[in-house]
Amino acid sequence: MSIQHFLQFKDLSREELEHIFNRAGIIKKRYKTYLPYHPLIDRTLVMIFEKSSTRTRLSFEAGMQQLGGNAIYLNTRDSQLGRGEPVEDAAQVISRMSDLVMIRTFEQEIIERFAANSRVPVINGLTNEYHPCQILADIYTYIEQRGSIQGKTVAWIGDSNNVCNTWLQAAEVFDFNVHVSTPPGYEVEPERAGLFGEDHYEEFPDPMDAARNADLVTTDVWTSMGFERENDARRKAFADWIVDKEMMSVASKDALFMHCLPAHRGEEVDAAVIDGPQSAVWDEAENRLHVQKALMEYLLLGTIDT
Ligand code: CP
Ligand code: NVA
């Protein structure tokens, strides 16, 4: 039987993702009312980090503990991965000692090589190309606060990075539209985004046009982890790609603002927006915990019939 991994958003079908959202709601409510739910007693999650993290580490570690299991943190510096042990060998060993692995790394190819040699499900906790757990939480948050995302318009303002690519995949799975605006030279690369169906996105040279009538406006840092060398060039190129009140005023009246965080106020977003009434960023961050608990439950125990 093949192992179900979550290496990119489209690895799970719409039906499976809807099941996960449904379970996330149940698990969230149960947790908030102090009703224990420990289906993963004795199970171990290994979390491998080759880049920094606050939310991803915390939500996976807390989530696994709340489900009755335990989580072990490994980073490049303190493990043999940083000293050149082949990722295939690491996967063989780590997956014999654990039930689930979450990895945050650089190229998508690294996580794919790990998964190909793993006996247990592997979850992408962010690569240069994708951040599927983030978009799981974002869509869950949208549905929780506004209802179905099908047919809606998401405006992506800024870099066509890992988070943007994942929104584009999700648009194909859930049948919504993404209006993307990037500075020249930073456009979407459809192949890198792993797009597979008809286009669900449109590119706009002017970010105000992308935001017009959008149901959700979202952005991310100008420079992602691993690209710090490009910082100066990006600061110049992205100077007009900032989500401010004026931009939110052309979006739909009840549009939400989201940001995966960490954010840089005064760069990609103004404080008035991220700290303003349309911002859903704290619920979005919290929901990482609930959706990932449902994801781990699904990958280890779940069927879509439960
Ligand atoms: N959004 C997100 O993944 O945050 P961290 O980098 O803190 O994990
Ligand atoms: N695009 C950002 C997301 C951080 C959660 C990065 O890769 O650094």
Automatic annotation (TrEMBL):
Q: Which Pfam families match?
A: OTCace (PF00185), OTCace_N (PF02729)
Q: What is its EC number?
A: 2.1.3.3
Sequence ranges assigned to domain Aspartate/ornithine carbamoyltransferase Asp/Orn-binding in this UniProt record:
150-299
SUPFAM superfamilies, per database record: Aspartate/ornithine carbamoyltransferase
Annotated GO biological processes are:
citrulline biosynthetic process; L-arginine biosynthetic process via ornithine
Q: Where in the cell is it found?
A: Cytoplasm
Task: Please list the residues that bind carbamoyl phosphate.
Answer: 53-56, 80, 104, 131-134, 260-261, 288
Residues making up the signal peptide according to the UniProt record: none
In terms of one coarse class, where is the protein primarily found?
Answer: cytoplasm
* Reaction equation(s) it catalyzes: carbamoyl phosphate + L-ornithine = L-citrulline + phosphate + H(+)
Q: What class of enzyme is it?
A: transferase
Q: Name one GO cellular component term.
A: cytoplasm
Q: Name one GO molecular function term.
A: amino acid binding
Q: Does the keyword Transmembrane apply?
A: no
Task: List positions binding L-ornithine.
Answer: 162, 220, 224-225
Can the keyword Iron be found in this entry's annotation? Answer: no
**Where does the Aspartate/ornithine carbamoyltransferase carbamoyl-P binding domain start and stop, copy by copy?**
4-144
Q: Which PANTHER family has this protein been placed in?
A: ORNITHINE CARBAMOYLTRANSFERASE, MITOCHONDRIAL (PTHR45753), ORNITHINE TRANSCARBAMYLASE, MITOCHONDRIAL (PTHR45753:SF3)
Q: Which NCBIfam families match?
A: orni_carb_tr, PRK00779.1
Protein name as catalogued: Ornithine carbamoyltransferase
- Which source organism does the UniProt entry give? Candidatus Nitrotoga fabula
- The primary gene name is argF
